[in-house]
Amino acid sequence: MVRIFPDAIELARAAAQEATAHLREAIGARGRARLVAATGKSQIEFLSHLAGGPGIDWSRVELFQLDEYVGLPPDHPASFAHYIRERLIRPAGIKCAHLLNGAGDPAGVCAQIGAALAAAPADLLMAGIGENGHLAFNDPPANFDTQEPYIVVELDPRNRAQQVREGWFASFDEVPRRAITMSIRQILKARAILCLAPGRRKAQAVRMCFAGEIGPMAPASAVRLHPQAMVYLDRESARDWKESA
């Protein structure tokens, strides 16, 4: 399902309402909700509405991290663990969080958090779409076959350059070359996926992933395989996709 909004602000508000409904439903049905949280510019406004909104018993939410840079400690300003703590865990008061330690042994971190994640399906997975079509840190050509919950990947130069443009790093050389990411197959195991991609810079990736073929060269196209995936676009990001439809 694709929804298009006039701007990124309305998109964020609507996405937060959708996420709240899914988390409340999971808590009501199973007594808890398992949530996978994403990071990046596209998530900031959305997480502000989600963490500050009413209706979620955050003490019943178990949080997992979608991806992380290899080599960055959890307190590094550009680490995704730091981002999630500051924008979701602390504002919402989440007590149970499985964060990826970028400074740890990558294989060991993948095994530890992967085992916890694989114990039961995630009720909601939140994600963005990279400028090169990446989903989490699955850059093209993405591995659509591995069954491992988390994998270590080499980052595409286009992905690393995006991190500099968005202001997370001062220079290209500062961006780590490797990352831990949830695999494509594991992402698709979530009960529901909420994918946010606002802004003109995402338009080419949106067209590639949602008007082209599903496959490794367009990693975010994988969400089209999921029956409960919701893609939230604004007019700018949907422009090229609508023209090609």
Low-confidence runs (pLDDT<50, min 5 residues)? Answer: none
Mean pLDDT: 96
Q: How many strands?
A: 10
Shape type? globular
Radius of gyration: 16 Å
Reading the helices and strands in chain order gives EHEHEEHEHEEHEHEHEH
CATH fold-level assignment? Rossmann fold
What fraction strand?
Answer: 15-25%
CATH class: Alpha Beta
Structural class: alpha/beta
Amino-to-carboxy terminus distance: 14 Å
The major beta sheet can be summarized as:
7 strands, parallel
Number of domains: 1
Give an overview of the whole structure.
This protein is of the alpha/beta class. The protein has a single domain (2-244), classed as Rossmann fold, CATH 3.40.50.1360. It has 8 helices and 10 strands. The chain has helices spanning 8-30, 41-52, 80-92, 106-117, 157-165, 184-187, 203-211, 235-244; strands spanning 2-5, 33-37, 61-65, 67-69, 96-98, 124-128, 150-154, 178-182, 193-197, 229-234. Strands 1-10-9-6-2-3-5 form a 7-stranded parallel beta sheet, sandwiched between helices. A 3-stranded antiparallel beta sheet has the order 4-8-7. Helix 7 (203-211) links the parallel strand 9 (193-197) and strand 10 (229-234). Helix 1 crosses helix 2 (41-52). The longest helix is centred in the N-terminal third of the chain and has 23 residues, at 8-30. It is globular.
Keywords:
245 residues, alpha/beta, Rossmann fold, 7-stranded parallel β-sheet, 3-stranded antiparallel β-sheet, 10 strands, 38% helix, globular
